[in-house]
């Protein structure tokens, strides 16, 4: 399985919070030989191996997006953000709206400089100032194109390989976790682990860890590892201390974040596996949260293992390809090792 190819496939596939059907179907389609389970809220899982420790690797399928909330008489669309967007990153871009008739494209445009007053340049825009323009002139025309409230939408994505070392795109958070989970599945289907390993793809992480909460309430494991991203601090603004993990420094053990402290037992175990196998890992205390917090609250030992990503939640999330490969090595060892 080509590791970059599978990542790009998942990035391209539609799946904003609450509308994960296409990405879930994509994951299933990549492994017709696996036995997948789908729960009531849409979480997907499959179990490989038996005996040993009960381990779960968890990644979230959803990404940030928009909901079309209202169609104006003149055909312009109003919309609401889903997940933790920064409004400064969303205008003057192409949008893709998923309708029953397929994908409809539009733009979130700004009033051009030629038509703006001086004070307008300084104003920070709010969501209510923005529209989506799909190139129609009435609500009737919009309807004919399949546009009705409430439809999901996303920004159009680019996928760039920078200097053969970095991937730059939207939704590394958390399609990289989803890809790692698939690569683990691929390996474990060929070489079953001596542990019982469940690979889980959750829904609605970006709207408050909701899928992981539901899954963790109904399933029990000895260990839960969430595979996600962490904001890398190696940026030019001198804020490394806010999230001390750098791109290219290896996968990061997220010891604590806004939601609390991870399992120290698992942290020590992961560090030991990494040390013995000479895999460079980083440890970080940062902001934000991951599905690990939801698992913890359901009484499960959990810890996030993260790929450091620059410019998180933007169109240009950037990760080191070496970190991606090293994370996979580490996860395989964690899943296979007898304790
Ligand atoms: Zn996120």
How much of the sequence is in beta strands?
25-35%
Which segments are poorly predicted (pLDDT under 50) over 5 or more consecutive residues?
none
Largest sheet: 9 strands, mixed
| Bulk shape | globular
Q: Over all CA atoms, what is the radius of gyration?
A: 21 Å
> What is the count of distinct domains?
2
CATH topology-level fold name of the largest domain: Aminopeptidase
Number of helices: 9
- Name the hetero compounds present: zinc ion
CATH level 1 class label of the largest domain? Alpha Beta
Characterise the protein shown here:
The protein has 339 residues and is α+β, with helices and mostly antiparallel strands. The protein has two domains: 3-63 and 170-336, Aminopeptidase (3-Layer(aba) Sandwich); 68-155, Elongation Factor Tu (Ef-tu), domain 3 (Beta Barrel), CATH 2.40.30.40. The protein has helices at residues 3-12, 21-30, 118-122, 139-144, 172-190, 210-218, 264-276, 291-297, 321-336, and strands at 37-38, 44-48, 54-60, 65-71, 77-82, 93-99, 102-108, 152-155, 159-162, 166-169, 196-202, 223-231, 252-257, 260-261, 282-285, 302-309, 317-320. The strands form three sheets. Strands 1, 2, 3, 11, 12, 13, 14, 15 and 16 form a nine-stranded mixed beta sheet that branches. Strands 5-4-8-6-7 form a five-stranded antiparallel beta sheet, with no helix packed on it. Zinc ion binds next to loops.
């Amino acid at each position: 399985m080509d590791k970059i190819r599978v990542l790009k496939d998942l990035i391209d596939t539609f799946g904003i919070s609450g509308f994960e059907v296409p990405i879930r179907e994509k994951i299933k389609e990549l492994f017709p030989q696996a036995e997948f389970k789908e729960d009531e809220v849409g979480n997907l899982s499959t179990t490989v191996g038996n005996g040993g420790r009960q381990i779960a690797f968890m990644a979230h399928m959803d990404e940030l997006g928009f909901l079309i909330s209202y169609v104006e008489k003149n055909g312009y669309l109003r919309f609401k953000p889903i997940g933790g967007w920064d409004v400064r990153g969303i205008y003057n871009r192409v949008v893709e709206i998923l309708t029953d008739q397929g994908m409809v494209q539009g733009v979130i445009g700004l009033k051009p400089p030629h038509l703006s007053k001086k004070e307008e340049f300084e104003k920070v825009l709010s969501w209510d100032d923005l529209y989506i323009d799909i190139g129609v002139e009435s609500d009737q025309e919009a309807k004919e194109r399949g546009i009705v409230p409430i439809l999901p939408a996303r920004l159009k994505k680019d996928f760039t390989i920078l200097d053969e070392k970095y991937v730059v795109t939207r939704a590394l958070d958390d399609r990289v976790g989803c890809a790692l989970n698939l690569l683990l599945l691929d390996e474990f289907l060929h070489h079953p682990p001596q542990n019982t390993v469940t690979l889980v793809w959750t829904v609605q992480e970006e709207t408050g860890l909701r899928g992981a909460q539901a899954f963790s309430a109904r399933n029990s494991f000895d260990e839960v590892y969430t595979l996600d991203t962490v904001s890398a601090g190696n940026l030019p603004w001198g804020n490394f201390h806010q999230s001390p993990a750098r791109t290219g420094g290896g996968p990061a053990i997220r010891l604590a974040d806004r939601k609390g402290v991870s399992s120290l037992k698992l942290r020590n175990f992961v560090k030991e596996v990494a040390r013995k196998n000479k895999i460079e890992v980083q440890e970080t205390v940062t902001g934000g949260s991951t599905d690990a917090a939801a698992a913890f609250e359901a009484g499960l030992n959990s810890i996030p293992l993260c790929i450091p990503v620059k410019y998180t939640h933007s169109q240009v999330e950037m990760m080191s390809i070496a970190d991606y490969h090293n994370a996979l090595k580490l996860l395989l060892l964690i899943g296979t090792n007898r304790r």
